[in-house]
Design brief:
The protein is 38% helix and 15% strand. It has helices spanning 44-56, 74-87, 115-129, 148-160, 174-186, 204-208, 210-217, 245-248, 259-274, 279-288, 303-309; strands at residues 17-19, 26-28, 30-33, 61-63, 95-100, 134-139, 164-170, 191-197, 220-224, 295-298. The longest helix has 16 residues, at 259-274. The protein is globular. The structure holds NADP nicotinamide-adenine-dinucleotide phosphate (NAP).
Length: 314
């Protein structure tokens, strides 16, 4: 295995950084997610190559969660291996996040939003990633059964313990989000960022008022699945390729690709071409243009995809 030395020009390769809400943190306009393509089932050398390309092009933010893989936990194990093989000398240049909120281990304490689950999960994540702390720890989803204060106090205590520098929430509904922002601010652990799905096909955080709330509260916003898992690229315009997420996974199913959707994608693709862009580039730029958006959190199954997507940073 060849040694990795980060490109000395990595901060002059075109990346731009955006302030995350009213915080001291700057995030790259494009961040890299480990949901797919970094699990135990994926070739390590390819995962490694993608992260090298990312970091060499100024992507300092890697986003994980306890159950990314498959199998669960294995994306974090890949991150741990990457730390040992390549990234340890660059730890202070990286902004690494993880989350807990979805099912992770069996029994009553391996899911949702209890203090018991969040605390144990973060300890496991740190062990898998070979890290002393994460930069950002998220509640991955709102738990309607657990008192909000219990989940939020766990986030406060995680920061106080030094295991995370900042906290965030993901996929929380509007009113609970408002409470969360207030609760965390009153305890001097302000919410750094909200992670939600915003893309040209799914504008819920905008329509629901989450984005406005983030702006008012000085909280950043990062958009996950900004390419709608690949739909907002040229991937499916002429059929479903064998190596695509749609042909393999359970999260993007062929029945989602209706004739109506395909027609819309083809129309947008033509519009993008008229502008001299790819559909992916246009879709990412559209998100970055929305007021309040800090970063787009892309996935990539190859370095070439990431390379193309980075063109949205102008
Ligand atoms: N908070 C949450 O609940 C939540 C939920 C989902 C995701 N996330 C975060 O968001 C990250 C990104 O999610 P995502 O992977 O769904 O993002 P995405 O950027 O919408 O989709 C990525 C997929 O699109 C395809 N693709 C990307 N660029 C392409 C290009 N230029 N041309 C053709 N195809 C391209 C690839 O799929 P192929 O495999 O087909 O090549 C790639 O794996 C995750 O890794 C995770 O960190 C968070």
């Amino acid at each position: 295995m060849e040694n990795y030395f980060a490109d000395p020009q990595r901060y002059n390769n075109g990346m731009q950084y955006e302030r995350c809400g009213r915080s001291g943190v700057l995030l790259p306009k494009v961040s890299l997610g480990f949901w797919h393509n970094f699990g135990g089932v994926d070739p390590y050398e390819r995962s490694r190559e993608i992260t090298h390309y990312a970091f060499d092009h100024g992507i300092t933010h890697f986003d994980l969660a306890n159950n990314y893989g498959p199998p669960y936990g294995s994306a974090e194990e890949t991150m741990g291996r990457l730390m040992d093989d390549d990234f340890r000398p660059y730890r202070d240049e990286l902004f690494i996040s993880t989350k807990a909120g979805y099912d992770m281990w069996p029994g009553p304490y391996g899911n949702w939003g209890s203090r018991k689950y969040l605390m144990a999960s973060l300890d496991q994540s740190l062990r898998r990633m070979h890290l002393d702390y994460v930069d950002l720890f998220y509640s991955h989803r709102y738990d309607p059964e657990t008192p909000l204060e219990e989940t939020l106090q766990a986030l406060v205590d995680v920061v106080r313990s030094g295991k995370a520098l900042y906290v965030g929430i993901s996929r929380w509904p509007l009113e609970a989000t408002r409470t969360a922002f207030r609760y965390l601010k009153e305890r001097d652990v302000p919410c750094l960022i909200y992670q939600g799905k915003l893309n040209m096909l799914d504008r819920e955080p905008q329509e629901e008022g989450i984005l406005d709330l983030c702006r008012e509260a000085g909280v950043g916003f990062i958009s996950f699945s900004p390419l709608a898992q690949g739909l907002l690229t040229d991937r499916y315009l002429n059929g479903v390729p064998e190596d695509s997420r749609m042909s393999k996974g359970k999260f993007l199913r062929p029945d989602m690709l209706t004739d109506e959707l395909l027609e819309k994608l083809r129309r947008w693709n033509a519009e993008a071409q008229d502008r001299g862009e790819t559909l992916a580039e246009m879709a990412l730029s559209w998100i970055l243009d929305q007021p309040g958006v800090t970063s787009v959190l892309v996935g990539a199954s190859s370095t070439a995809q990431l390379q193309k997507n980075l063109r949205c940073v102008k």
